[in-house]
Specification:
The complex is a heterodimer. Chain A is mainly α. Chain A has one domain: Four Helix Bundle (Hemerythrin (Met), subunit A), CATH 1.20.120. Helix content of chain A is about 70%, strand content about 0%. Chain B has a single domain (about 30-535), classed as Cytochrome c oxidase-like, subunit I domain (Cytochrome C Oxidase, Chain A), CATH 1.20.210.10. Chain B has helices spanning about 20-25, 30-60, 85-120, 130-150, 170-175, 180-205, 220-250, 265-280, 285-300, 305-320, 335-345, 350-365, 370-395, 395-405, 405-435, 445-470, 490-520, and strands spanning about 80, 80-85. In chain B, α2 (about 30-60) runs antiparallel to α3 (about 85-120) and α4 (about 130-150) packs antiparallel against α6. The longest helix of chain B is centred in the N-terminal third of the chain and has 37 residues, at about 85-120. Classes of the chains: A mainly alpha, B mainly alpha. At the A-B interface, α1 and α4 of A face α6 and α7 of B.
């Protein structure tokens, strides 16, 4: 933007300012945003815990309604996409454009597949009359997994944008802020899923 | 005043501004323009909220009588110009919603957070200017959706601004379906807007302070906005989550808050107030910070106990998270838990009292200039004490049992929100108006507006304590329904007439605000002889704020230190003489 905001190394905080967080603005901003995301999922997960403890009988035994094997594959896929995200980051930190693009494309594909499998899962559940209005079980299941799916979708969209920029050679070993910042978000979404998979499907 | 910013003025022309009109004023990324956009938007909502309040007051003062102008309302709102009970419920709900979410909150956080943070810490703009623009352009559709609710079938949301379930969750209870859903949707979007703003404010304060602007050289307005942004960041997503569940209950048939299928109405209350109590401090902390700036300036003395002020803001910000249960004493709470919430609530009076005594300590022995902002700031302190004191004893569950859901609560919350926040907002607008628009507001009109507002405000809200103690219910449509409330009719009418006069007095502010924009006296860079960095750049500041990043050498409130020819020492002026004793001495 303004003149004072362009500085020598963009991955370092501005030397023209009083010492702050010690990281560049975008990274700091993403960490702060993720704090707010934690609170959002806390509201959903906290409500789930309260509702379920009050009415344990409203939940079917694990595996009765939800298809655990399919979702386990999906979970594995999402964890793999976190690994490929790290690989993408490591590649560009070394200045390797080719590997950056490869790993990013893989991450986007795995993320999109995750959403696809979730849609497939929803479709079959609704066919079996397990809908959002099906008691507390349906209410919490669709709200929690749905909003996680929404976050993955947003992540895939942003990641596609980053990938597009990567193909245009916008990231370098000296400045790859976009890759690092979307990576933070992606790992967060992944982490939330591991919690959701455990408490919604396995318990 | 020629001595004020000598190094900056000549270099300012170096800041080239070649943005198109659309980029400069509509889809601007400049924090100053966005601040002014928020100001205009929230003043419109303040007006709308005020009009809704006047309609409520008519019904309470003259129940069942045709309202002047009521014939303009459609049959679904008023029959023969008499307000219908259903519409009255919408009025109560929307007055609260507009005032809290679309007037006071954006006025404090959206306007002054945006306008002051970069200017006061010496940054050229926010950390994320485009995110900042997105934040404003999300708030606008949220506001439009909220207004649209009045025009849909079934009328607007009518479950109170707190949207208590199951009243809000099941359309059958209020007859409102689309209106309540729009209410949820609008607040979800507004929540996103606030969160984006908060991310921006926090990042900016942490990373973009000018060299020398250490944490403890930040003005208290910035400290309070910083802590407020943290509260917004962590509280708004809780509301968003709760609203999403409520919206699904209404539209998808889920059962989160509907007891028939195992849902828990109390869960809504917990979620709402877990957000709602930090929200209370979101609505008062920035006001406290800006009042500190104005009082120190008006008393020409350093703020008394700067560090204790900072720690008081922090402890209020923290304690605000552990008191939400005091809104729910009558919802069926375990008495032991109630006692815990009582103690934590009363604890907040400690940092609040520290702040009040520090303001008094600042005024003590000062050479006070009663400018318009100073008058408002002093009124803030006085009114906040009244609102704060009634808050302390309401925190006790046995007392709350008696006054809960009565006009006593209405009196209390208006003493902190109107007497507190809104007086501070009027003061802050007058104080920073010259910086925003390059012109002074008329002090004569300003004083007239202040005195009329102060008098009528107290005539409106003080008697409400009395109403509440005599059992006047908070959201009752027709106070003549019950025999025991019949004697209150005269007091109600008195309040209503005072309220109309209070509303009319606000037109003076409107005239002053718009008139000064075009015809006000041209403002110098530093019309109030203040020490802050924002006064070292022209009024209004150019795009980019400073041609050369300012350097900070002094704490924020160096008034009357005797180290300069004037009675104030700007934060960025380098002095050759070493600082006298460790801290700046008071003026006497």
């Amino acid at each position: 933007m303004a003149h004072a905001m362009t500085h020598a190394s963009v991955m370092e905080p501005s030397p023209e300012a009083e010492p702050g967080a010690g990281v560049y603005n975008e990274k700091l901003g993403m960490w702060i945003f993720l704090l707010s995301e934690i609170m959002f999922f806390t509201a959903l997960i906290g409500s789930y815990i309260i509702l379920r403890f009050a009415h344990p009988e409203a939940w079917a035994a694990p595996g009765k309604v939800l298809n655990i094997p399919v979702t386990a594959v999906n979970t594995f896929l999402l964890i793999c996409s976190s690994v490929s995200m790290v690989k993408a980051y490591a590649s560009i930190a070394d200045g390797n454009q080719k590997m950056l693009r490869l790993w990013l494309v893989l991450t986007v594909l795995m993320g999109a597949t995750f959403v696809g499998i979730q849609a497939y899962e929803y479709y079959h559940l609704i066919e079996k009359a397990f809908v959002p209005s099906a008691g507390l079980y349906g209410s919490t299941f669709y709200t929690m997994t749905g909003f996680h799916g929404f976050h993955v979708t947003m992540g895939v969209i942003c990641m596609s944008f980053v990938t597009w920029k990567a193909f245009r050679g916008r990231y370098t070993a000296a400045d790859h802020r976009g890759v690092e910042v979307i990576g933070l978000y992606w790992h967060f979404v992944d982490l939330v899923w591991i919690i959701l998979f455990t408490i919604v499907y396995l318990i | 005043m020629a001595t004020i910013a000598p190094p900056v003025e000549p270099a300012v022309h170096a800041l080239v501004d070649d943005r198109t009109f659309l980029r400069k004023y509509i889809f601007s990324t400049d924090h100053k323009i966005i601040g002014i956009q928020f100001l205009l938007m929230s003043l419109i909502f303040l007006l709308i909220g005020g009009i809704l309040a006047m309609m409520m007051r008519w019904q309470l003062g003259f129940p069942g009588r045709p309202m002047p102008g009521g014939g303009l309302l459609p049959e679904t709102m008023a029959s023969g110009a008499v307000i219908l009970p259903e519409f009255y419920a919408s009025l109560v709900t929307m007055h609260g919603t507009f005032m809290v979410f679309f007037a006071i909150m954006p006025l404090l956080v959206g306007v002054f957070g945006n306008y002051l943070i970069p200017l006061k810490i010496g940054a050229p703009d926010m950390a994320f200017p485009r995110l900042n623009m997105a934040s404003f352009w999300l708030a606008v559709p949220a506001g439009l959706l909220m207004i649209a609710g009045f025009f849909v079938e079934g009328g607007h949301a009518a479950a109170g601004w707190t949207g208590y379930a199951p009243l809000s969750a099941n359309p059958e209870y209020t007859g409102v379906s689309a209106g309540q859903q729009l209410w949820c949707l609008s607040l979800i979007i507004l929540g996103l807007s606030s969160i984006l703003g908060a991310v921006n404010y926090i990042s900016t304060v942490i990373n973009l302070r000018a060299p020398g602007m250490t944490w403890f050289r930040m003005p208290l307005s910035i400290w309070s906005l910083f802590i407020t942004a943290i509260l917004v960041l962590l509280a708004m997503p809780i509301l968003s989550g709760a609203l999403i569940m409520l919206l699904f209950d209404q539209s998808l048939g889920t059962h989160f808050f509907l007891p028939a299928d195992g849902g828990q109405p109390i869960l809504w209350q917990h979620l709402f107030w877990f957000f709602g109590h930090p929200e209370v401090y979101i609505l008062i902390l920035p006001a406290m910070g800006m009042v500190s700036d104005i009082i120190s300036n008006g008393a020409r003395k350093p703020i008394f106990g700067y560090h204790s002020m900072v720690f008081a803001i922090m402890s209020i910000g923290f304690l605000g998270w552990v008191v939400w249960g005091h809104h729910m004493f009558q919802s069926g709470m375990n008495p032991t838990l109630g006692t815990t919430f009582m103690v934590s609530t009363m604890l907040i009076s400690v940092p609040s009292a520290i702040k009040v005594f520090n303001w008094l300590g600042t005024l003590w022995g000062g050479s006070i200039k009663f400018t318009v902002p100073m008058l408002h700031a002093c009124a803030f302190v006085a009114m906040f004490v009244i609102g704060g004191l009634s808050g302390v004893f309401m925190a006790s569950p046995p007392l709350d049992m008696y006054i809960h859901d009565t006009y006593f609560i209405v009196a209390h919350l208006h003493y902190v929100l109107f007497g507190g926040s809104l007086f501070a907002i009027f003061g802050a607008i007058t104080f920073w108006y010259p910086k925003m628009f390059g012109r002074m507001m008329s002090p004569r009109l300003g004083k007239l507006h202040f005195f009329l507002t102060f008098v009528f405000y107290n005539l409106v809200f003080f008697p409400m304590h009395q109403l509440g103690l005599q059992g006047h219910m908070r959201r009752i449509y027709d106070p003549s329904t019950y025999e025991f409330m019949k004697p209150l009719a005269g007091l109600n009418r008195f309040i209503t007439i005072s309220a109309f006069l209070l509303f009319a007095s606000q037109l003076l502010f409107l005239v002053n605000f718009i008139g000064s924009w075009f015809r006000g006296r041209k403002a110098e860079p530093n019309p109030w002889d203040d020490t802050g960095l924002e006064w070292t750049t022209p009024s209004p500041p150019p795009h980019g704020n400073w041609a050369v990043t300012p350097r900070v050498y002094h704490p924020p409130y160096e008034f009357g230190s005797g180290r300069t020819a004037e009675d104030f020492l700007p934060q960025d002026r380098k002095l050759d003489t070493p600082p006298a004793p460790a801290r700046a001495p008071a003026s006497r």
